[in-house]
Amino acid sequence: MTIRVLVADDQRVVRAGFTAIIAAEPDMAVVGAAGDGAEAVRLAGETAPDVVVMDIRMPGADGLAATRRLTAGGFAGRVLVLTTFHRDEYVYGALRAGASGFLLKDCDPEELVQAIRTVAAGEALLAPEVTRRLVEAFARGDVLPPPADDERLAPLTAREREVLVLVARGLTNGEAAAALGIGAATVKTHVNSVFAKLGLRDRVQATILAYDTGLVRPG
């Protein structure tokens, strides 16, 4: 199966470079290239890509705004954010907007194509340095979540909350099953139910929401 990719970046040279790297892969095809967020949203509607490789800082509608418009509009594909910026608020903004992955532009070409494959397969991806910065920011108290009685968690059962806590702490379904004394298939059912009730696409979004609501706290 060929992975259809849309590249969105305001720098023509960067767009050309990403396009060349991606098009060289036998399992990928570049279906469009956009110079700003508005064009990315328009082309995504026209070409139905599996993955949008999205820059954050672009003129007009930036990558975060474009990502929010895509996910809110029922876009079936995934958004992989690439940026040169390391500032934490861009990471939070991208993930909360609905991105499934976040990489820095200084990653190797091999990392880029593997990241596209990962998010296209329905998985979530964060560059190691991005994950570290998220954890450090929460630990410093730079991100202060509201109380755990946040109304966004209201649809969940007590067991589903337990499962969400373990997912946010990085446990696999098998590890969560062992911790709760239930079967892995049962955990998977609970995870799917959590995703459905809260409108989540993957474990990254689940983790962000768990911290945002105060259900999980550093340490």
Give the overall shape, derived from the CA principal axes.
Answer: elongated
Low-pLDDT residue spans: none
Q: Approximately what portion of the residues adopt beta-strand conformation?
A: 5-15%
Structural class: alpha/beta
Sequence of strands across the biggest β-sheet: 2-1-3-4-5-6
Distance N to C terminus: 42 Å
Number of helices: 10
Q: What do these coordinates show?
A:
The protein has about 220 residues and is α/β, with parallel strands linked by helices. It folds into two domains: about 5-135, Rossmann fold (3-Layer(aba) Sandwich); about 150-210, Winged helix-like DNA-binding domain superfamily/Winged helix DNA-binding domain (Arc Repressor Mutant, subunit A, Orthogonal Bundle). About 50% of the residues lie in helices and about 15% in strands. The protein is built from ten helices and six strands. The protein has helices at about 10-25, 35-45, 65-70, 90-95, 110-120, 130-140, 160-170, 175-180, 185-200, 205-210; strands at about 5-10, 30-35, 50-55, 80-85, 100-105, 125. Strands 2-1-3-4-5-6 form a six-stranded parallel beta sheet, with helices on both faces. Strand 5 (about 100-105), helix 5 (about 110-120) and strand 6 (about 125) form a beta-alpha-beta unit. Helix 2 packs parallel to helix 3 (about 65-70), helix 7 (about 160-170) packs across helix 10 and helix 8 crosses helix 9 (about 185-200). The protein starts with a strand and ends in a 7-residue tail after the last helix.
